[in-house]
Write a structure and sequence with these properties.
Blueprint lengths: L1 E5 L4 E7 L6 E5 L10 H7 L4 E5 L20 H14 L6 E5 L1 H12 L6 E5 L4 E3 L2 H17 L1 H12 L3 H14 L3 H11 L1 E3 L1 H5 L5 E4 L4 H14 L5 E4 L8 H4 L1 H16 L1
Helix pairs in contact: 2-3, 4-5, 4-7, 5-6
């Protein structure tokens, strides 16, 4: 059931389905998407676990504080919303499954409080990113100008650049068309995502962390640079999902489901 969590300055849209006595699984979507990114997993994983999927502030049907302040779109601000939600609904140490920006938000949450989760699975996420000024300037063209002038064309080009799988392209096109109605928010979020560093969070993590993916070339390249640091922590590991790119649950839904559930079940054994 879809609900709203009132934070006074804005509201957070979420779905929640609980099974008494069963562990919780929390889904956090990528930039430009919303909680519907995990509709399939909500239904399948939700057969055996309590599940929650949240639309991060300013995306989907979630609102943002009035005005257009850049500081309202910082990862720490998005993380704050989720931490408050966990407290409000007494969701203690859920397993978290997060895509791209959702993974960065999860890392920020762990930076604020390192015992919030039972485990963390991320895909399309690198713990560190450093972008050039030219790239940062180009974000406005990609996220504001082109979607305003040519929304369908831009969504089509971006979906094909992200995945080669037709079914995944179609789902991503629909996500992007919805996101283009919130262009300024997406632009501000992408500016925040251009440069960040949560390397220390993974190096010092005291919870199991799984990094998924195979064809996500840019993200994998960044993780590869950092892997000599991460592999020192026995709780952090990688798993290649054959044929899966930046949005693994769209590209390879069955393999993604099996990997995610297997990782969660390992924590109970």
């Amino acid at each position: 059931m879809e609900r709203y969590f009132d934070l006074k300055t804005h509201k957070i849209d979420y779905r929640l389905q609980e099974i008494p006595g069963r562990p919780g699984v929390l889904f956090l979507h990528g930039c430009g998407a919303n909680h519907t990114q995990f509709d399939n997993e909500f239904n399948t994983i939700g057969k055996d676990y309590s599940v929650a999927a949240i639309s991060l502030r300013g995306q989907g049907k979630s609102t943002r504080p009035a005005g257009s302040r850049q500081e309202d779109m910082k990862m720490s601000a998005l993380a704050y919303d989720i931490i408050q939600w966990l407290k409000e609904y007494n969701w203690k140490t859920p397993h978290v499954i997060a895509c791209s920006m959702g993974g960065v938000v999860a890392l920020d949450m762990l930076q604020q409080q390192n015992d919030l989760f039972k485990s963390l699975t991320t895909f399309g996420t690198t713990p560190k990113l450093s972008s050039s000024r030219i790239f940062t300037a180009g974000i406005w063209v990609a996220d504001v100008m082109l979607p305003a002038l040519f929304p369908n064309w831009t969504a089509n080009v971006m979906s094909k650049a992200t995945t080669s799988i037709p079914e995944a392209q179609q789902r991503l096109r629909e996500d992007l068309k919805e996101a283009y109605r919130q262009r300024n928010t997406i632009y501000q979020l992408r500016r925040e995502l251009a440069n960040y560093d949560y390397t220390h969070v993974l190096r010092e993590s005291n919870i199991p962390v799984l990094l998924q993916g195979e064809k996500d070339t840019a993200i994998n390249r960044e993780i590869e640079k950092l892997w000599p640091l991460f592999k020192e922590n026995p709780l952090v590991r990688r798993e290649w999902l054959k044929g899966a790119g930046h949005i693994a649950n769209y590209d390879q839904p069955q393999a993604f489901y099996e990997s995610a559930v297997r990782f969660i079940e390992e924590q109970a054994s």
